[in-house]
Design brief:
heterodimer; A: alpha/beta; Oxidized Rhodanese, domain 1; 11 helices; 10 strands; about 15% strand; globular; B: mainly alpha
Chain lengths: ~250, ~450
């Protein structure tokens, strides 16, 4: 008899802990391999593909059939674009080190979207799997020189005339930025590039150096003659800076 | 005269190209649908009559191709002229298949979505790179990768001075298959190290090439004989130095150059990128020594001679010992039997003899520890000594990698050293008189030679 009591207690406790763990765990997006996504699209499943990068990047190249909704704009645009919260939304990034698709997916889950997926590895993984992309409005790549933090430090010391354009999101910019930098997040650059003077040398700075090249090519196309970019972005600059302080 | 000939040849080529183009249109070989809709006498240049298409295109590398060889989606001139058919981006891979296949792995394609024309700009007037291909590559890459260190590196500098043997960007990074080992993406340390070390070895093992510059093609061989080289080869490149870790990736300069990472004044910082808390003498480490060279590496040479001598001496002693032992126990016995001497019999317990314990528990424990430490040393050391045999990798894998094997090797070495000192203290070196009493009656057959006075 007492043995049965023990069994029941253990069973009840484990059931309770299982329930509480389910409640405690935050809903996580489903991770999709490129091949899985491809099959889904081929089967014609009701799936919305969303490029979480900026408008410029998405128009430049994206997976066929994607919508361009930048991470920063998702909450504002979602009610109109995706009124049905049970629709399957698949977010993806432009690189395998970018967090935008994951961040947008988390936001969507918080706001009650039930079926959220993220493409693992973003566009590079998609391409590696052998699938193509489409361009709506391609920005021709132009020769844009990059400089490393060591050189930038020298330029800053020399007080060289330089307009530092930080294209990271505003929150990141506010956390810390290069002296005298101005912030135009990349998802707004196509609307705000006219604010930039044509006659000053511009240095484009991003998070990891993976997005500044396209932005720089775009600015050269828009008539800014002297554009350089920071190799490795702010991540590399901070590594350099902390190593210098240690010394 | 030369100009005239040149302009003549250009004109001839234009005419030829026009003829070819027209031929294509009329014959309809590549544009079957066009044959009916094209007006006679019309070619692409009738409308696209800029200097670029009329003159420079025919002199370009693609000058012998018709427009529709690349713009394959223009099938009807009528539809094209009325704007119904617009040319889609050209697929260069339909002809350049091998390059297209390589390009699928290219970092510029995967990350930055480069297309052929982003580097091969002005495709309609594209000419073959001038005879100095390496120079052309450096010029192209440094359009964007203009950091001074790329151009100031020993290799590029040498190419710029006209040395065709030196490495240009593409010799290490690949031309159309530039890999994703981007330095700002240190996500592939192992793959990157293997990849680039292989690239360095490719040229630096070439005897003829190295000979032209007074360099030794054996440097790679010597590196491969060091701990760094062996562990890299055995399959654990992430935790050891490849070529570029010490020589850096671009700032590859001779030891005598103060900017060089291997200049004596930079060595502490250079080694310090991986090793911590070392004495300043640590940097005297020879990264690729030739231990057969007595003049330049006397310490290593004599260590090699001494260790080889020890090895040969040890084996010689034990083989002789084993042979003599065999002679004593079998040959002697056989002889005695032939002489008619009774074979020896073991005394039986029933005859009133008491068995005596030969080794105490402590001695047996020492023996087990000796076996364990020795076998550990062998099992962790041999895979490095014989790093190029297939079982080396398997054996190292059993320990959990080269790094773990190294930890076990050091533990076993410490244990063996302690055992050695303890046994030495026990035996004749320190307490001569004790032994006879402790080992008892079987002293004459004990493994430790007796030096009783």
């Amino acid at each position: 008899m007492s043995r049965m009591k023990w069994v029941w207690t253990v069973a009840l406790l484990s059931a309770l802990s299982a329930v509480s763990s389910v409640q405690a765990a935050e809903p996580a997006p489903n991770l999709l391999e490129p091949a899985e996504l491809r099959q889904m699209l081929e089967r014609g499943e009701d799936t919305v593909l969303i490029d979480a990068m900026s408008h410029l990047e998405c128009m430049d190249h994206s997976i066929p059939g994607s919508l361009c909704v930048a991470d920063e704009e998702f909450l504002a645009k979602a009610p109109k674009l995706f009124p049905d919260k049970n629709r399957h939304l698949v977010f993806y990034c432009g690189s395998n080190r970018c967090c935008r698709s994951g961040e947008t997916a988390a936001m969507a889950l918080q706001h009650g979207y039930a079926r959220i997926s993220v493409l693992k590895g973003g566009i590079p993984a998609w391409k590696k799997a052998g699938y193509g992309t489409v361009s709506q409005e391609r920005i021709p790549r132009l020769p844009v020189a990059s400089i490393k933090p060591e050189r930038l430090a020298r330029w800053l010391l020399e007080k060289r005339d330089l307009l530092i354009l930080d294209i990271r999101r505003e929150a990141r910019f506010r956390e810390g930025h290069l002296p005298g930098a101005i912030n135009i997040p990349l998802f707004r650059l196509h609307e705000r590039y006219q604010e930039l003077p044509l006659n000053r040398p511009v240095l484009v700075v991003d998070d990891r150096g993976l997005r500044s090249f396209l932005a720089s090519s775009y600015l050269v196309r828009k008539g800014i003659a002297d554009v350089t970019r920071l190799f490795g972005g702010m991540e590399r600059w901070q590594e350099y800076d902390s190593a210098k302080k240690k010394r | 005269m030369g100009d005239m000939r040149h302009s003549m040849s250009v004109r001839v080529r234009i005419m030829l190209a026009a003829a070819v183009l027209a031929g294509c249109w009329f014959a309809g070989s590549s544009v079957p649908a066009a044959a009916t809709s094209v007006e006679p006498g019309k070619s692409c240049q009738s409308c696209h009559d800029d200097e670029l298409y009329r003159a420079r295109f025919s002199g370009s590398v693609h000058g012998n191709d018709s427009c529709t060889s690349c713009h394959t989606d223009i099938r009807s001139l009528q539809a094209h002229m009325t704007g119904k058919e617009k040319p889609a981006p050209v697929n260069c891979g339909s002809c350049h298949q091998e390059i297209a296949r390589e390009f699928q792995k290219n970092f510029h394609y995967l990350q930055e979505d480069f297309r052929c024309t982003d580097c091969h700009r002005g495709i309609h007037a594209l000419k073959k790179a001038d005879s100095n291909f390496k120079l052309a590559v450096i010029k192209k890459c440094t359009e964007c990768h203009a950091n001074e260190e790329y151009v100031a590196s020993g290799h590029a500098e040498s190419v710029l001075k006209g040395n065709q043997d030196s490495a240009a960007c593409s010799d290490c990074h690949g031309l159309h298959d530039t890999r994703v080992y981007h330095t700002s993406l240190e996500t592939y340390p192992g793959e990157a190290r293997e990849f680039y070390t292989r690239k360095c070895k490719k040229c630096h093992t070439d005897k003829a090439l190295m000979g032209r510059f007074g360099l030794s093609a054996d440097m790679v061989k010597y590196y491969e004989a060091t701990y760094h080289g062996k562990v890299e080869e055995i399959g654990y490149p992430t935790r050891v130095a490849g070529c570029a870790d010490c020589h850096t990736s671009h700032n590859i300069l001779p030891k005598s150059d103060t900017r060089s990472s291997i200049h004596p004044s930079n060595l502490i910082a250079n080694c310090g990128r991986c090793h911590q808390g070392f004495h300043a003498r640590f940097v005297a480490y020879k990264a690729h020594p030739n231990y057969h060279d007595r003049k330049n590496y006397p310490a290593l040479f004599w260590t090699f001679v001494l260790m080889s001598g020890l090895l040969i001496g040890t084996f010689l002693f034990f083989w002789v010992h084993t042979a003599l032992w065999w002679r004593k126990s079998y040959w002697g016995k056989d002889k005695r039997e032939k002489l008619g001497v009774e074979p020896e019999k073991l005394p039986l317990e029933s005859e009133g003899l008491v068995p005596v314990q030969r080794f105490t528990l402590k001695e047996r424990m020492i023996h087990v520890l000796l076996i364990l430490s020795f076998m550990t040393l062998v099992m962790t050391g041999f895979p490095l000594k014989y790093h190029d045999v297939p079982w080396a990798g398997i054996l190292i894998g059993l320990w959990g990698g080269a790094h773990m094997a190294g930890i076990f090797h050091r533990i076993a070495a410490a244990l063996l050293s302690v055992l050695f000192l303890y046994v030495a203290w026990l035996s004749f070196l320190f307490s001569r008189g004790d032994r006879g009493r402790r080992v008892g009656s079987s002293a004459s057959s004990a493994p430790i030679p007796s030096v009783r006075t």
